Amino acid sequence: MDADLRSIAGARRAAERAFEAWLAFRATPPETIDSMVESMALAIEPEAERLARLAVEETGYGNVPDKRIKNLFNSLSVAEWLRNVRTLGVLWRDEGEKVAAIGEPMGVVAALIPVTNPTSTVIFKALSAVKAGNAIVCAPHPRGVRCGVATAAVLARAAEQAGAPPGLVQCLDEVTIQGTDELMRHRRTSVVMATGGAAMVRAAYSSGKPTLAVGPGNVPVYVHRSVADDLAEVAERIIVSKSFDYGTACVAEQAVIADAPAARGLRHEMKLKGAYFCTSAEAGRLASVLFDRHGAPVVENVGQSAKRLASLAGFDVPPRTRVLVAEPAGVGPGAPLSAEKLAPVLAWYEAAETGAGIEAAERVLRHGGWGHTAVIHARDPEVVAGYGRVPAGRVLVNTPAITGGMGFSTGLEPSFMLGTGTASGSIVSDNVTALHLINIKRIAWESRPWRDLHELYGDEPARGGRA
C-alpha cells in the first residue's frame, strides 16, 4: 500500500474512532469537561520544552525557547480564559423576550496544523475542541508529524485519565494531501479548523464541510510622530515581536511605516536594539534567499535566524543582530520583500504625513494581508481612529503585534487562529475560540399573542388590518 492509501485509510479510521468517542462523550457534564481541559493544559506544562525541541528538530523552523513559550501560552493562558467561558448547556436567558440559548457540540473537528507552529496549534485546537464538547483529529503538515503526534499523545493521555473516552483527541501519524482531504470530507467530520497558506484555505473551503479557515498575513506597523519621545520602547516592541520564534507567526509585523519626523530616531533605536539595515545589494540577495522566482517562499529558509539568513545571502551582520531590515522601492510583486516574510525580516517605508502613512499600510495589507492585522504606535486618538479604517480584522495600538494579536497584551480572546474575514476568503474575522465550535440552539416561548399577526396584517380593515 502506498503512502496516499495508507494516509487515507488512517484518516478514515481516525474519523470513525473519533465519532464513536464523541457519542460516548456527549453526556459528559460541562463541569467534568472543564476538569478535563484543565488536566490537558497542566499536562503540557512539564512537556512544553521537550515538545518545542521536537518541533525545531523535525521542521527546522524557529527556536526552542520561543516555541516553549508558544506551547505554554496555548495551554495555560488559553485554559485560564476557557475557565470563565460557558460553551455547553444554557448560555444565556432573556426573560423579557422569553428566549434561552443552549450550547451544543458540533461533533468531530478536523484540525489542519501548520508546519510553522506544529505543537502549539495542536494544543490550542485540542483544548478548544474539547471545551466545546467535541472530538478532534489533527492533520499535521507532513514535516511536523512526529512532534504533532507527540503533542496529541500528551493531551489524549491527560484527557483519558480525567475520564474522556479513548479516541477523543487524535493526530494522524501518516499524512499526505490525499489523507488530509479524506479527513476533511469524511462523513463523520462535522467541521474543519484550518490554519495555513492560501492553497490550504482554498482546499479546506472546498471540502464541502463547514469550515473555519485562516490564511496568511502581511502586517504593517505605523509609527506616528506622537510617540517620538518613546521610540526606544517602540523599537523594542517591534523587534521582539518580529524576531520571536524567528518570524514564524503570521501575526508578527512585516513592514514598518515610519512617520517622517520620527523616522530618523526610530531607525537609530532599532539599530541599537538589534536591527541591521541592509544595503540595496544585500536586500536583493536576501530576497532571493527568501523567495523563488515565482514569488513563493523558499521553504527551507522559513523560520531561520537573522544571522543565518544573512550568511545565506552572502553578507555579514553584527553578532547581536535580531532582525534584518530592507527598504523596498514599493509594494507589490516587483518588490518581493514587501510581502509576508516568515522570517525575522522587515520592510521599511517612510511617510511624509499621516494620510500617506495610512495609505502605505493599506497597500501592504492589500498585498497578501487583507483582513489580518495592522499595528499603530500613536498617542493621538484621531490618528488612531483614522488608522482604524485600514482593511484589517485587528488593529492593535501601542503593543507588539504578536502579543497583542494572540490576546496576551490586549483584551482580545487568546487564540492561535486569527480570522481574516471575507475579503481574504475566510468566513470569520474573530480570534477563533471554543465558542466558534458550538451550535447554539434557541428555545423561545410565546412572548406576543400569535393572533396579532392577523390583527396587524390581515385583510379586514375593520379589525385594524391593511386593505
What is the gist of this entry?
This protein has helices spanning 3-25, 30-44, 48-59, 64-83, 120-131, 145-161, 177-185, 198-205, 231-243, 260-272, 280-290, 306-313, 354-366, 381-387, 401-405, 452-457, and strands spanning 89-94, 99-105, 108-113, 135-140, 169-171, 189-195, 211-214, 219-223, 253-259, 275-277, 323-326, 345-351, 371-377, 392-397, 438-444.
Walk me through what this model shows.
With 467 residues, this protein is of the alpha/beta class. 41% of the residues lie in helices and 18% in strands. It has 16 helices and 15 strands. The protein has a seven-stranded parallel sheet with strand order 10-11-12-9-8-13-14, sandwiched between helices. Helix 3 runs antiparallel to helix 6.
Number of helices: 16
> Beta-strand percentage?
15-25%
Q: Evaluate the radius of gyration.
A: 24 Å
Low-confidence stretches: none
How far from one another are the termini? Answer: 73 Å
What is the β-strand count?
15
Q: What is the typical, i.e. mean, pLDDT?
A: 95
Q: What kind of sheet is the major sheet? A: 7 strands, parallel
Strand order of the largest sheet: 10-11-12-9-8-13-14
Helix fraction by DSSP (H/I, runs of at least 4): 40-55%
* Class computed from helices, strands and strand pairing: alpha/beta
Give the overall shape, derived from the CA principal axes: globular
Main traits of this protein?
7-stranded parallel beta sheet; 5-stranded parallel beta sheet; 15 strands; single chain; alpha/beta
